[in-house]
Amino acid sequence: MDAKLTLKLDETIIESEKEYAESNKRSLSKLVENYFKKLTAKNTPPRKHSPLVESLSGVISEEEAEKWAREDPRIRYILTKEL
């Protein structure tokens, strides 16, 4: 169930975050909610790779991924990107 929360923040931060939310097609409320979830998450090991890389884990062998990364800079970027 959703509940309303009132926050007092510096006006420039609010405007900046509204712009960020809009440019990323998210609501400011969702950004704050996700931030709080991350802050309070317990026993969550830090990610070594981006969510995309983690979702693809096991699809191909590490050796094949390394070969592709050597041959294509776009794949190298995706495999090493940290979010």
SSE topology sketch:
Elements: H1 11-23, H2 28-40, H3 51-56, H4 62-71, H5 73-80
Q: Describe it for me?
A:
60% of the residues lie in helices and 0% in strands. It contains five helices and no strands. It is mainly α and 83 residues long. The chain has helices at residues 11-23, 28-40, 51-56, 62-71, 73-80. The chain is elongated.
SSE run: HHHHH
Number of helices: 5
Shape: elongated
Note poorly predicted spans.
Answer: none
- The percentage of residues in β strands lies in under 5%
Report the structural category. mainly alpha
How big is the Rg? 18 Å
What's the overall average pLDDT, rounded?
82
Q: Determine the fraction of residues in helical runs and give it as a percent range.
A: 55-70%
Name its key features.
83 residues, 5 helices, mainly alpha, 0% strand, 60% helix
Give the structure's gist in a few sentences.
The protein is mainly α. It has helices at 11-23, 28-40, 51-56, 62-71, 73-80.
